[in-house]
Amino acid sequence: MSTYYGPDFDALSKQDPEIAAVLLSEMTRQQKNLQLIASENFTSRAVLAAIGSTLSNKYAEGYPGKRYYGGCEEVDKAENLAIERAKSLFGADHANVQPHSGASANIAIYQAFTKPGDTVMAMSLAHGGHLTHGSPVNFSGKWFNIESYGVRSDNELIDYDELRDKAIATKPKMICSGATAYPSLIDFEKVRAICDEVGAIMWVDAAHFIGLVAGKAIPSPVPYADVVSFTTHKVLRGPRGGMILAKAEHAAAIDKSIFPGMQGGPIMSAVAGKAVALAECATPAYQKYAKDVIVNAQALAKALEAEGMRAVSGGTQTHLALMDIRSTGVTGKVADERCGAAGIVMNKNSIPNDPEKPGITSGIRVGTPSTTTQGMGVEEMKQIATLIARAIATDDASAHSAIKSEVHALTSRFPIYQG
Ligand SMILES: *Cc1c(COP(=O)(O)O)cnc(C)c1O
């Protein structure tokens, strides 16, 4: 008797060659090109096995021991493991591991602590905030009165004086810190003091940097914040999904807000994948990885500065660098396209007070979670900076294919999934 436990690529190829071909060429694309998108990473095979498993078949509305469906005894074990691992890794009172994504986790937080029309403070999108921090095209901007704060123009670091003044003036219910393109550390102690002064809930959206916290490479928001939301697929290197950590007093409100508040059944395969990733994060190897990610980001930013670009905020203390590339004479959009033609995948990004529109931009955002997972180090970062500068400097297609060959030679030395 043979038992089927998980994904079977041969079966897929036979049944659906079109989708099998997409999977193969996507794997090739990830392996051959340089992956510098700051919000991406390569999960382990163990995580892939969990998310490709039969746990995907199971409905489990509710929470372990309190489900609305029968047959949840096995998935309950997976969810309890994920919860216990999250609480122990981050020293949190409470963990909800069910959010389908970072955006879902954030919706649940708004719902738990505010009503439509309430005032919430968050980082300005133009200065690195996320869509769910008040974009006019997002539920957050449509349903809430968002007061945004930004970075100082002299040093491009969060303007805590502006944050405090605005908080005193507008009396927000909740203050969010966290961003998608902020290369520096956030002073959680200062934010806590402001929240206490105005009686606001302190919410940290740690999606980008929580993996660095997990690896003990940067300070944690958990001791300060009422509630911390994040994605599990960025530096943290888990499956695509979200998670919320909360102080004990907010545990019931958060759980209710996720289910039945805004989700139905959890994706139990993803929950199992989160448990696997959290166990990986507790290892010395991951802690070394988290430190290496920052060392690499700093080396990349420095090397790009040597090529004449300017690092926003004067450099990076995290996994990403935001580069002002106006000195190159091209926009972020053009740089993004030229690098893409040379096999270097990253994204255009607005810089603080960017004179260009968000679709054009004066900057690029580069991150090191993926290349560091591949095993690249400081020497490779220097080489990558040169390749980026050369790709940006030309619009010649044959020059871009020559750079692409060098990119492929580099990445072939760092296989993502061996064997
Ligand atoms: C990535 C990110 C999110 C959203 O995560 P999704 O899983 O894409 O919904 C939310 N907030 C911040 C700060 C992020 O960086």
From TrEMBL:
Q: Where is this site: Plays an important role in substrate specificity?
A: 233
In this chain, (6S)-5,6,7,8-tetrahydrofolate is annotated as bound at 125, 129-131, 249
Q: Where is the Serine hydroxymethyltransferase-like domain?
A: 12-388
Q: Which GO terms describe its cellular component?
A: cytosol
Protein EC: 2.1.2.1
Q: Which UniProt keywords apply?
A: Amino-acid biosynthesis, Cytoplasm, Methyltransferase, One-carbon metabolism, Pyridoxal phosphate, Transferase
What's its catalytic activity? (6R)-5,10-methylene-5,6,7,8-tetrahydrofolate + glycine + H2O = (6S)-5,6,7,8-tetrahydrofolate + L-serine
Q: Where is this region: Disordered?
A: 350-374
Which GO BP annotation is one of this protein's? Answer: tetrahydrofolate interconversion
**Record PTM N6-(pyridoxal phosphate)lysine, positions in chain:** 234
Compartments in which it is found: Cytoplasm
Q: How does it assemble?
A: Homodimer.
Q: Which family does it belong to?
A: Belongs to the SHMT family.
Query: Which function does this protein serve?
Result: Catalyzes the reversible interconversion of serine and glycine with tetrahydrofolate (THF) serving as the one-carbon carrier. This reaction serves as the major source of one-carbon groups required for the biosynthesis of purines, thymidylate, methionine, and other important biomolecules. Also exhibits THF-independent aldolase activity toward beta-hydroxyamino acids, producing glycine and aldehydes, via a retro-aldol mechanism. Thus, is able to catalyze the cleavage of L-allo-threonine.
PANTHER family per UniProt: SERINE HYDROXYMETHYLTRANSFERASE, SERINE HYDROXYMETHYLTRANSFERASE 1
Name of this protein: Serine hydroxymethyltransferase
Q: Which organism is it from?
A: Candidatus Planktophila vernalis
